[in-house]
């Protein structure tokens, strides 16, 4: 059994976790980074590798996969112990040490930083029964390859950032794009809504999807039945592809088993990113506090704060903070 005790074990290898691991290595801490998927990167790598990000500090435009590759490259300059394809299942305390149980091995650590985002990536699906064969051909909840949409008739369902961003982005490739939203107002960045309004994307609002079926005459297409909100108006559109972006289900059950204090599905943290458990911190999309925004920029800001607080707790004598990274060069 691996009895090494790490200073910090980071659970979740998304942007928050990778950057926390890098920053902890910069502070010369002994770090384990655990990620359930085969590759580090989290949402930008898994959910929107080809989508561009416009609010990443220092970049006017950068794709999801480039963000994760740059974070990984930065981490690999200092290296930490990476446990990939390893899912954390349990968190228990043995004296001052945390015992992290996984599907593979047990890891011991003085402090823990939880950076699991929304947990596993489970999309909110259409709630009515439909032929699941559609998911193999015409209906998707993720964009794996934008080229699949080239010259197609596309309908995007949803009214949040992801739906609006994908409608705009894919509209450059498609023959025609429509967005279906149950309200007249989108829950998306103002600049994105402006861009949508100035684009050729057809806006089908306020409609909900009632049914999806293979088209009777052309099985390569699907008929999407829409019902107008507070009206009996029904309309059927025929498209090649339906991309549903209703968000993701958070997976808070595992956290309840760890006795972490939650607010809704999120971990409640102090200003210093502390949870209710001693030396257990949380950062990124999984946390909540007044004013929390689920953004890359906030995740990156939270990482050094959690690491610094953990360092101060573990090594009270090393309570030194340098604001200039050049001091770490040697
Ligand atoms: C479509 C879309 C577009 C977006 N666009 C932008 C944008 O333009 N700008 C912006 O700032 N933000 C954007 N975001 C939000 C941004 O991606 C998130 O805020 C960010 O990814 C949060 O990082 P995180 O590390 O907290 O979580 P995540 O990226 O979710 O990473 C968490 C990691 O933890 C792993 N994990 C989960 N449970 C376990 C476990 N039990 N054991 C081990 N590992 C585990 C997961 O596999 C995952 O890799 C977008 C999000 C989406 C979905």
TrEMBL record:
Keywords: FAD, Flavoprotein, NADP, Oxidoreductase. It is an enzyme of class 1 (oxidoreductase). Homodimer. One of its GO terms (molecular function) is NADP binding. Its cofactor is FAD. Binds 1 FAD per subunit. InterPro entries: FAD/NAD-bd_sf, FAD/NAD-binding_dom, Fd--NADP_Rdtase_type_2, Ferredoxin-NADP_redctase_2. Belongs to the ferredoxin--NADP reductase type 2 family. Its EC number is 1.18.1.2. FAD binds at residues 35, 43, 48, 88, 121, 285, 325. It comes from the Bacteria. Residues 6-303 form the FAD/NAD(P)-binding domain. This is Ferredoxin--NADP reductase. SUPFAM superfamilies: FAD/NAD(P)-binding domain. PANTHER family: THIOREDOXIN REDUCTASE 1-RELATED-RELATED. It catalyses: 2 reduced [2Fe-2S]-[ferredoxin] + NADP(+) + H(+) = 2 oxidized [2Fe-2S]-[ferredoxin] + NADPH. It comes from Companilactobacillus nodensis DSM 19682 = JCM 14932 = NBRC 107160.
